[in-house]
Amino acid sequence: MYPNDGFRELDRQECLRLLAKASVGRVVHTRNALPAVLPVNFCLDLDSAVLLRTAADSELSRAIDGAVVAFESDEVDAAAHSGWSVVVTGRAAVVTDPAEHDRLSRTGPRSWFASPEEVFVRIEAELVTGRELVGGRTLYGVDLSA
């Protein structure tokens, strides 16, 4: 980011605070050696890991288990030219511990689609970055809202 480009870099705590208020994001992973992006609902766990809930036999759970992935969530106000975007990068893993699965069944995200067998996927928050677009600002500091 450049000075006065309209963006403000967010620190880790600001990023996690914003993510905690969001409910939908996108998982970025590799499918057949190509980038793939999938929208998902999620929540943050107590240790700031991103939690997903999906069908045990889903393509997503198979594709990202053990892989390093990116997760992005954002909020944009197109009319005000403002918003934020946060990216979490880390290793994803299907939760296999029965006690942890039971805990997440009570506290984790709810699935939007019922499935006979569901798993939780944790994305460790190894790298957390974000930026906020300050409404009406440009590279030259001109206020576009006037």
Model description:
- The protein is α+β, with helices and mostly antiparallel strands and 146 residues long.
- Helices cover 18% and strands 44% of the residues.
- Strand 6 and strand 7 (82-94) form a beta hairpin.
- The longest helix has 10 residues, at 12-21.
- The two termini are 24 Å apart.
- The model has no long low-confidence stretch (mean pLDDT 89).
Radius of gyration: 17 Å
Q: Tally the helices.
A: 3
Average predicted local confidence, pLDDT: 89
Percent of residues in helices comes to 10-25%
Taking pLDDT < 50 over at least 5 consecutive residues as the criterion, the unreliable ranges are none
Largest sheet: 9 strands, antiparallel
Structural class: alpha+beta
Provide the β-strand percentage band.
35-45%
Number of strands: 9
What separation lies between the terminal Cα atoms? 24 Å
Give a quick summary of the entry:
The protein is α+β, with helices and mostly antiparallel strands. It has helices at residues 12-21, 59-64, 98-107; strands spanning 7-10, 24-31, 34-41, 43-44, 50-55, 68-77, 82-94, 118-123, 127-133.
